[in-house]
Design brief:
This protein has 9 helices and no strands. It is mainly α.
């Protein structure tokens, strides 16, 4: 992308100078007359400025990233990724095998958005954003959101690779005389079924894991709402924080 921008900028500068100074076009000459001199000098100066400033701006430009804070109106990169995953998940709704899990995940997504806003509101009642205690709380909440987001992404990945039509054929064959098939064909049929069931059970486990995360957020919100004040040393001693930290540790190396 940068190469295209650089090419467009520099070609434009060259074309401009050709148009201005070429005999067959504008034919501007410096020192020919006052008007021609002004146009020529202006063109050269602007070309130099455009060349230097434009190339530097393009070469050293950085991709903008959203600031991450749930209490603001800004959307974090992880928040956008989650929204994209939820949108992609909704397009898998035609897979009846996972319809209940998809609906549940979307419901959990809505709950997490609500909990995040509520938690940040409560935190700002107790702390200033510049305080260390606020940062520690937010870091923990961000970790919980990353865990939730990661589970949603895994759910999406499994559902996307799941062959719904093939699963329906397997179920039909098993229900209609699968045990009467030749042994080798029956073994292949049941091997396929086991693979499908592994996907189904894995998605169900992840949905249940995210339900636990929502419950932990509810507990944290309840504890925070009861506080009149909290010291930094009290943060790690809060039972909701301890539960959340334990949850993060337990699922850190959860199977993909």
């Amino acid at each position: 992308m940068k190469f295209v921008k650089l090419l467009f900028l520099n070609v434009s500068i060259i074309v401009l100078n050709i148009v201005v100074f070429s005999q067959g076009l504008l034919g501007i000459h410096i020192s020919k007359n006052l008007f021609s001199t002004i146009i020529g000098v202006t063109t050269i100066v602007l070309s130099v400025i455009a060349f230097i400033w434009g190339n530097i701006s393009i070469l050293f430009s950085k991709k903008r990233t959203s600031v991450i804070r749930n209490g603001n109106n800004e959307i974090s990169d992880s928040g956008k990724a989650l929204a994209d995953n939820i949108s992609a998940l909704s397009k898998q709704w035609n897979k009846k095998t996972f319809r209940e899990n998809i609906n549940k995940t979307m419901e959990q997504y809505g709950k997490m958005k609500t909990r995040n806003k509520a938690v940040d509101t409560v935190l700002l009642q107790h702390f200033k954003p510049t305080e260390m205690s606020y940062s520690r709380f937010r870091n923990i909440i961000d970790s919980v959101n990353e865990l939730f987001n990661g589970n949603v992404e895994k759910i999406l990945n499994r559902i996307e690779v799941f062959d719904e039509s093939d699963y329906r054929v397997i179920i039909y064959k098993i229900k209609n005389g699968g045990d009467n098939l030749p042994e080798q064909e029956k073994q292949v049929l049941y091997d396929k079924l086991n693979i499908c069931l592994e996907h189904i059970n894995y998605v169900k486990e992840l949905v249940e894991a995210n339900e636990t995360i929502v419950l932990k957020m509810d507990k944290l919100l309840l504890e925070l709402s009861k506080l009149s004040a909290v010291d930094e040393s009290d943060i790690e001693n809060m039972s909701a924080i301890q539960d959340i930290n334990a949850l993060i540790d337990q699922t850190k190396f959860y199977k993909q």
